Amino acid sequence: MTELGDWRTLIDTPARIYYKYEGTSPAGSHKPNTALPQVWYNAQQGVKNVVTETGAGHGAVLWTFACSLFGLNCEVWQVRVSYDQKPYRKLMMQTWGAKVHPSPSGVTDAGRKILETDPSSPGSLGIAISEAVEVAATHADTKYCLGSVLNHVLLHQTIIGEECLKQMEAVGETPDMIIGCTGGGSNFAGLAFPFIREKLNGKINPIIRAVEPAACPSLTKAFTPTDYGDDGGMTPIVEDALPLGT
Protein backbone atom coordinates (compact mmCIF):
# COMPACT_ATOMS: atom_id res chain seq x y z
CA MET A 1 0.00 0.00 0.00
CA THR A 2 1.38 3.38 -1.04
CA GLU A 3 0.24 6.92 -0.29
CA LEU A 4 -0.06 8.83 -3.58
CA GLY A 5 1.06 12.30 -2.59
CA ASP A 6 1.56 13.40 -6.19
CA TRP A 7 -2.03 12.50 -7.09
CA ARG A 8 -3.24 14.60 -4.19
CA THR A 9 -1.34 17.56 -5.61
CA LEU A 10 -2.39 16.97 -9.21
CA ILE A 11 -6.12 16.91 -8.48
CA ASP A 12 -5.86 19.54 -5.75
CA THR A 13 -7.63 17.61 -3.01
CA PRO A 14 -7.18 17.60 0.77
CA ALA A 15 -7.89 13.85 0.74
CA ARG A 16 -5.08 11.42 1.41
CA ILE A 17 -5.09 8.76 -1.32
CA TYR A 18 -3.71 5.26 -0.75
CA TYR A 19 -3.14 2.76 -3.54
CA LYS A 20 -3.15 -0.99 -2.95
CA TYR A 21 -0.97 -2.66 -5.59
CA GLU A 22 -0.67 -6.41 -6.18
CA GLY A 23 1.33 -6.36 -9.41
CA THR A 24 4.74 -7.14 -7.93
CA SER A 25 4.03 -10.87 -7.63
CA PRO A 26 6.09 -13.16 -9.87
CA ALA A 27 3.08 -13.60 -12.17
CA GLY A 28 2.43 -9.85 -12.31
CA SER A 29 -1.04 -9.61 -10.78
CA HIS A 30 -3.19 -10.35 -7.74
CA LYS A 31 -4.16 -13.78 -9.04
CA PRO A 32 -1.52 -15.92 -7.31
CA ASN A 33 -3.58 -15.22 -4.17
CA THR A 34 -6.07 -17.80 -5.47
CA ALA A 35 -3.77 -19.93 -7.63
CA LEU A 36 -1.54 -20.93 -4.72
CA PRO A 37 -4.32 -22.28 -2.46
CA GLN A 38 -6.19 -23.93 -5.34
CA VAL A 39 -3.11 -25.75 -6.60
CA TRP A 40 -2.03 -26.63 -3.05
CA TYR A 41 -5.41 -28.24 -2.30
CA ASN A 42 -5.21 -30.17 -5.56
CA ALA A 43 -1.72 -31.38 -4.68
CA GLN A 44 -2.96 -32.54 -1.27
CA GLN A 45 -5.70 -34.55 -2.99
CA GLY A 46 -3.23 -36.32 -5.26
CA VAL A 47 -4.16 -34.48 -8.44
CA LYS A 48 -1.35 -34.64 -11.00
CA ASN A 49 -2.47 -32.17 -13.67
CA VAL A 50 -4.14 -28.76 -13.76
CA VAL A 51 -5.78 -27.46 -16.93
CA THR A 52 -7.02 -23.97 -17.67
CA GLU A 53 -7.67 -21.50 -20.45
CA THR A 54 -6.50 -17.98 -21.14
CA GLY A 55 -7.04 -15.12 -23.52
CA ALA A 56 -4.08 -12.76 -23.48
CA GLY A 57 -2.11 -15.16 -21.29
CA HIS A 58 -2.00 -13.05 -18.15
CA GLY A 59 -4.33 -15.26 -16.15
CA ALA A 60 -2.76 -18.59 -17.05
CA VAL A 61 0.68 -17.45 -15.94
CA LEU A 62 -0.53 -17.66 -12.34
CA TRP A 63 -1.44 -21.34 -12.69
CA THR A 64 1.88 -22.27 -14.26
CA PHE A 65 3.68 -20.40 -11.47
CA ALA A 66 1.69 -22.17 -8.74
CA CYS A 67 2.03 -25.60 -10.37
CA SER A 68 5.79 -25.15 -10.59
CA LEU A 69 5.91 -24.60 -6.82
CA PHE A 70 3.86 -27.68 -5.91
CA GLY A 71 5.06 -30.12 -8.56
CA LEU A 72 1.92 -30.39 -10.70
CA ASN A 73 1.76 -30.42 -14.48
CA CYS A 74 -0.05 -27.50 -16.10
CA GLU A 75 -1.72 -27.49 -19.51
CA VAL A 76 -3.14 -24.31 -21.01
CA TRP A 77 -5.40 -23.56 -23.97
CA GLN A 78 -4.76 -20.02 -25.16
CA VAL A 79 -7.03 -18.20 -27.62
CA ARG A 80 -5.23 -18.61 -30.93
CA VAL A 81 -5.12 -14.94 -31.91
CA SER A 82 -3.42 -14.10 -28.61
CA TYR A 83 -1.18 -17.16 -28.84
CA ASP A 84 0.15 -15.74 -32.11
CA GLN A 85 0.20 -12.05 -31.13
CA LYS A 86 1.55 -12.28 -27.57
CA PRO A 87 4.47 -14.72 -27.57
CA TYR A 88 6.04 -13.46 -24.35
CA ARG A 89 3.20 -14.65 -22.12
CA LYS A 90 3.43 -18.03 -23.80
CA LEU A 91 7.19 -18.03 -23.18
CA MET A 92 6.63 -17.15 -19.53
CA MET A 93 4.20 -20.06 -19.11
CA GLN A 94 6.58 -22.44 -20.83
CA THR A 95 9.46 -21.24 -18.64
CA TRP A 96 7.47 -22.43 -15.61
CA GLY A 97 6.91 -25.79 -17.30
CA ALA A 98 3.45 -25.46 -18.85
CA LYS A 99 2.29 -27.07 -22.07
CA VAL A 100 0.50 -24.36 -24.07
CA HIS A 101 -1.90 -25.07 -26.95
CA PRO A 102 -3.36 -22.54 -29.39
CA SER A 103 -7.16 -22.80 -29.20
CA PRO A 104 -8.98 -24.19 -31.09
CA SER A 105 -6.55 -27.09 -31.11
CA GLY A 106 -6.52 -30.57 -32.56
CA VAL A 107 -6.07 -32.02 -29.07
CA THR A 108 -9.75 -32.10 -28.04
CA ASP A 109 -13.09 -32.96 -29.63
CA ALA A 110 -14.30 -29.41 -28.97
CA GLY A 111 -11.32 -27.94 -30.77
CA ARG A 112 -11.48 -30.34 -33.69
CA LYS A 113 -15.15 -29.54 -34.30
CA ILE A 114 -14.34 -25.85 -34.62
CA LEU A 115 -11.39 -26.49 -36.92
CA GLU A 116 -13.50 -28.70 -39.20
CA THR A 117 -15.84 -25.80 -39.93
CA ASP A 118 -13.30 -22.97 -39.69
CA PRO A 119 -9.65 -24.05 -40.04
CA SER A 120 -8.45 -20.45 -39.61
CA SER A 121 -10.58 -19.71 -36.53
CA PRO A 122 -8.94 -17.05 -34.33
CA GLY A 123 -10.47 -18.78 -31.31
CA SER A 124 -12.40 -17.41 -28.36
CA LEU A 125 -12.34 -17.73 -24.59
CA GLY A 126 -15.49 -19.86 -24.76
CA ILE A 127 -13.77 -22.36 -27.07
CA ALA A 128 -10.66 -22.47 -24.89
CA ILE A 129 -12.78 -23.14 -21.80
CA SER A 130 -14.51 -26.02 -23.60
CA GLU A 131 -11.16 -27.60 -24.46
CA ALA A 132 -9.73 -27.31 -20.95
CA VAL A 133 -12.91 -28.56 -19.26
CA GLU A 134 -13.17 -31.48 -21.70
CA VAL A 135 -9.70 -32.68 -20.72
CA ALA A 136 -10.48 -32.34 -17.01
CA ALA A 137 -13.78 -34.20 -17.43
CA THR A 138 -12.15 -37.14 -19.20
CA HIS A 139 -9.05 -37.60 -17.02
CA ALA A 140 -9.43 -38.61 -13.37
CA ASP A 141 -6.05 -37.19 -12.36
CA THR A 142 -6.77 -33.75 -13.86
CA LYS A 143 -8.66 -30.73 -12.50
CA TYR A 144 -9.79 -27.49 -14.11
CA CYS A 145 -8.97 -24.24 -12.32
CA LEU A 146 -10.45 -20.78 -12.76
CA GLY A 147 -9.01 -17.51 -11.47
CA SER A 148 -12.02 -15.20 -11.13
CA VAL A 149 -15.81 -14.99 -10.64
CA LEU A 150 -16.30 -18.03 -8.38
CA ASN A 151 -17.02 -17.77 -4.65
CA HIS A 152 -13.88 -19.55 -3.48
CA VAL A 153 -11.76 -17.23 -5.65
CA LEU A 154 -13.32 -14.17 -4.03
CA LEU A 155 -12.65 -15.71 -0.61
CA HIS A 156 -8.97 -16.27 -1.39
CA GLN A 157 -8.58 -12.72 -2.67
CA THR A 158 -9.84 -11.17 0.57
CA ILE A 159 -6.27 -11.45 1.81
CA ILE A 160 -5.83 -8.15 -0.08
CA GLY A 161 -8.39 -6.33 2.02
CA GLU A 162 -7.36 -8.05 5.25
CA GLU A 163 -3.80 -6.87 4.70
CA CYS A 164 -5.03 -3.41 3.77
CA LEU A 165 -7.01 -3.15 7.02
CA LYS A 166 -3.81 -3.86 8.96
CA GLN A 167 -1.84 -1.38 6.86
CA MET A 168 -4.41 1.38 7.37
CA GLU A 169 -4.33 0.70 11.09
CA ALA A 170 -0.52 0.85 11.07
CA VAL A 171 -0.54 4.36 9.56
CA GLY A 172 -3.36 5.53 11.81
CA GLU A 173 -5.94 5.96 9.06
CA THR A 174 -9.61 5.04 8.71
CA PRO A 175 -10.71 5.20 5.06
CA ASP A 176 -13.72 7.30 4.09
CA MET A 177 -14.04 5.59 0.71
CA ILE A 178 -12.96 2.28 -0.82
CA ILE A 179 -12.81 2.27 -4.64
CA GLY A 180 -12.06 -0.69 -6.88
CA CYS A 181 -12.56 -1.72 -10.48
CA THR A 182 -14.86 -4.66 -11.10
CA GLY A 183 -15.18 -7.11 -13.95
CA GLY A 184 -15.10 -10.75 -12.92
CA GLY A 185 -15.12 -9.52 -9.33
CA SER A 186 -12.03 -10.99 -7.69
CA ASN A 187 -10.07 -7.73 -7.58
CA PHE A 188 -12.90 -5.67 -6.12
CA ALA A 189 -14.09 -8.36 -3.72
CA GLY A 190 -10.55 -8.96 -2.54
CA LEU A 191 -10.13 -5.35 -1.51
CA ALA A 192 -13.66 -4.41 -0.47
CA PHE A 193 -15.16 -7.44 1.28
CA PRO A 194 -13.12 -7.15 4.51
CA PHE A 195 -14.04 -3.46 4.71
CA ILE A 196 -17.70 -4.32 4.06
CA ARG A 197 -17.56 -6.80 6.94
CA GLU A 198 -16.17 -4.13 9.26
CA LYS A 199 -18.84 -1.70 8.05
CA LEU A 200 -21.65 -4.19 8.70
CA ASN A 201 -20.22 -4.76 12.19
CA GLY A 202 -20.40 -1.02 12.84
CA LYS A 203 -16.65 -0.55 13.27
CA ILE A 204 -16.10 1.77 10.29
CA ASN A 205 -18.40 3.48 7.80
CA PRO A 206 -16.66 3.98 4.45
CA ILE A 207 -18.40 4.49 1.13
CA ILE A 208 -17.78 1.36 -0.96
CA ARG A 209 -17.65 2.14 -4.68
CA ALA A 210 -17.28 -0.37 -7.53
CA VAL A 211 -16.27 1.03 -10.92
CA GLU A 212 -17.21 -1.05 -13.96
CA PRO A 213 -16.66 -0.59 -17.71
CA ALA A 214 -19.31 1.42 -19.54
CA ALA A 215 -19.01 -1.04 -22.44
CA CYS A 216 -20.25 -3.91 -20.25
CA PRO A 217 -22.02 -2.56 -17.15
CA SER A 218 -23.02 -5.94 -15.75
CA LEU A 219 -23.86 -4.62 -12.26
CA THR A 220 -25.87 -1.53 -13.14
CA LYS A 221 -27.44 -2.00 -16.58
CA ALA A 222 -27.76 -5.68 -17.33
CA PHE A 223 -30.12 -8.61 -17.42
CA THR A 224 -29.02 -12.10 -16.42
CA PRO A 225 -30.03 -14.90 -18.79
CA THR A 226 -28.75 -18.39 -18.06
CA ASP A 227 -26.32 -20.05 -20.44
CA TYR A 228 -23.29 -22.29 -20.53
CA GLY A 229 -20.03 -20.63 -19.62
CA ASP A 230 -18.32 -21.99 -22.73
CA ASP A 231 -18.97 -22.63 -26.42
CA GLY A 232 -19.17 -26.41 -26.22
CA GLY A 233 -21.63 -26.71 -23.33
CA MET A 234 -19.11 -28.49 -21.10
CA THR A 235 -19.58 -26.24 -18.06
CA PRO A 236 -22.57 -25.92 -15.70
CA ILE A 237 -25.27 -23.45 -16.72
CA VAL A 238 -24.65 -20.09 -15.08
CA GLU A 239 -26.18 -16.64 -14.97
CA ASP A 240 -24.52 -14.45 -17.58
CA ALA A 241 -24.96 -10.71 -17.14
CA LEU A 242 -25.42 -8.92 -20.46
CA PRO A 243 -25.93 -5.21 -21.21
CA LEU A 244 -29.56 -4.32 -21.85
CA GLY A 245 -30.34 -4.39 -25.54
CA THR A 246 -27.80 -7.12 -26.33
Automatic annotation (TrEMBL):
SUPFAM superfamilies tied to this protein: Tryptophan synthase beta subunit-like PLP-dependent enzymes
Pathway assignment: Amino-acid biosynthesis; L-tryptophan biosynthesis; L-tryptophan from chorismate: step 5/5
The Tryptophan synthase beta chain-like PALP domain, residue ranges: 14-223
UniProt signal peptide: none
The keyword Lyase is assigned to this record: yes
UniProt xrefs under Pfam families: PALP (PF00291)
Main EC class the enzyme belongs to: lyase
Name assigned to this protein: tryptophan synthase
Taxonomic source organism: Phoenix dactylifera
Source taxonomy: Eukaryota, Viridiplantae, Streptophyta, Embryophyta, Tracheophyta
